[in-house]
Here is the input.
Amino acid sequence: MDRDNLLQQLLLRGLGTSSLVADRLRSVTQDWVRSGQLDPGQATALVDDVMRALRGDNPELEKQASRQMERNIDHFLQDVGLARQKEIDELRGRIDRLEQLLRSRRESENVPD
Here is the structure.
């Protein structure tokens, strides 16, 4: 099967699924409003929140996913024994400070009294 065609089919199915979820959610919330279980304003907010989450427009959800991804990357790098750029930069800073300290001590030893 053609990769582009497969990708297109997956995207269309995803869009169709999202549309079905939205329609069903609207239907359910309308039933809840009619039965008095939910306020119309709450129903609208619920549908909007779920739709934003489905579209990926939820900043808090994105932050949580980003934090989880960072933790996963940290664990992976630890497992394979690699350092992150931040750790390398910190080590470079420490090396620079130690080299500077060593130079200043050598200079102070070479100064005649």
